[in-house]
Amino acid sequence: MFRDILLFLIDIVFSLFGIALILRAWMSAIRLHPFNPYSQAILRASDWLVRPLSRIVPSFGRLDTPSLLMCWLTALVYLLLTWIIALGGALPPLAMLAPAVVAALLTVVKWAFNVIVWATLIQAVLSWINPLSPIMPVLYTLTAPLLDPIRRLLPRTGGIDFSPLVLLVLAQIAMMVVQHMAFTVFGM
User: Fold this and answer.
1) Burial annotation 108-134 (CB, 10 A radius, 16+ → b, else e)
2) Rounded CA separation 104/90 (Å)
3) Which of 70-79, 90-99, 154-163 has the lowest mean pLDDT?
4) 63: helix, coil or strand?
5) How many domains, in total, are found in the chain?
6) DSSP secondary-structure letter at 88?
7) In this predicted model, what pLDDT tens digit does every residue of 22-36 receive, in sequence order?
8) pTM for this one?
9) What distance in Å separates the CA atoms of residue 105 and residue 75, rounded to the nearest whole number?
10) CA-CA distance, 176 to 182, in Å (whole number)?
């Protein structure tokens, strides 16, 4: 039971931190205003780890390479910790290092699609409940690059915007593909 609780807590902490790193990279890619209070929270939560790496690893244009690299390392540490705890404290064999590298990349992709799903879902619900919520401009800025191309493809339906629904379905399908790839790569 203690092991299950520990695995649960590790999953939550590492997933939230990985998602913060993905949001940091996403905010950089779309040029979200850094003095926004929500941006400040993400930057403060991840600065201690990303800032030292940014002195060594440069960003390329809008691609925040240090944040993405730290997200991948976070996923790798998360997977290794999970395997060590699941194996009862034993280190995984060295042959598991290459699959762990791929699994960490797939974990980052899964976290990214989770961010898309939650940002889109929260924006859609808030647009019905409280469209003037202070977080709505941030959510709109985050999701607009994903929703606008879908809006251009969908026919006009009056006052109902189906693009969030389409994006949610596409993100869920993408997560299924990533999950299938993980099972295929690791023979599960």
Assistant:
1) bbbbbbbbbbebbebbbebeeeeeeee
2) 20
3) 90-99
4) strand
5) 1
6) T
7) 999 999 999 888 888
8) 0.88
9) 7
10) 10
